[in-house]
């Protein structure tokens, strides 16, 4: 029986997954924080506010994180995740408006 050395690409893949998970967690926290303050917000405005906060490196009052590249697809994916989890909901008469 001969053991092969650990493949480096497997370590790199794990690191990428960890980075993506952290990014998703930060985006989800940012989305909920914004909607807690605003109570309801048009989805387009929410996306722009999240992207702006990511570029400035601001999570909220007094909290900072390193700025990172964030795209509308990333934010919308997190919005869908939060909708499926039940943290957010859409207004019945205006489905483009999200509520916390």
Task: Give structural attributes.
about 15% strand, Arc Repressor Mutant, subunit A, alpha+beta, CUL9 protein, Cullin, three-stranded antiparallel sheet, WH_DNA-bd_sf
Commentary on this structure:
It is a single chain. The chain is of the alpha+beta class and 100 residues long. The chain has a single domain, classed as Winged helix-like DNA-binding domain superfamily/Winged helix DNA-binding domain (Arc Repressor Mutant, subunit A), CATH 1.10.10. The protein is 59% helix and 13% strand. The protein has 3 helices and 5 strands, in the order αβαββαββ. It has helices at 8-38, 43-56, 72-85, and strands spanning 40-42, 58-60, 63-64, 89-90, 97-99. The strands form 2 sheets. It has a 3-stranded antiparallel β-sheet. The protein has a two-stranded antiparallel sheet with strand order 2-3. A hairpin with a 2-residue loop joins strand 2 and strand 3 (63-64). Helix 1 crosses helix 3. This is CUL9 protein. It comes from Oceanites oceanicus. Residues 19-96 form the Cullin neddylation domain. InterPro entries: Cullin, Cullin_neddylation_domain, WH-like_DNA-bd_sf, WH_DNA-bd_sf.
Which percent band covers the strand fraction? 5-15%
Number of distinct helices = 3
- Annotation, overall tally of beta strands: 5
Catalogue the unreliable spans: none
Q: Element order, helices and strands?
A: HEHEEHEE
Integer-rounded radius of gyration: 17 Å
Q: CATH H level: which superfamily?
A: Winged helix-like DNA-binding domain superfamily/Winged helix DNA-binding domain
Termini separation (Å)? 57 Å
CATH architecture verdict? Orthogonal Bundle
Number of domains: 1
- Supply the helix-strand structural class: alpha+beta
């Amino acid at each position: 029986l001969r053991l092969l050395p650990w493949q480096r690409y497997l370590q790199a893949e794990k690191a990428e997954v960890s980075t993506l998970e952290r990014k998703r967690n930060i985006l989800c926290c940012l989305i909920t924080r914004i909607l807690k303050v605003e109570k309801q917000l048009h989805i387009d405005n929410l996306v722009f506010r999240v992207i702006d906060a990511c570029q400035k490196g601001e999570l909220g009052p007094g909290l900072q994180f390193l700025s990172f590249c964030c795209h509308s697809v990333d934010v919308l994916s997190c919005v869908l995740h939060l909708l499926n989890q039940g943290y957010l909901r859409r207004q019945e008469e205006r489905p483009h408006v999200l509520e916390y």
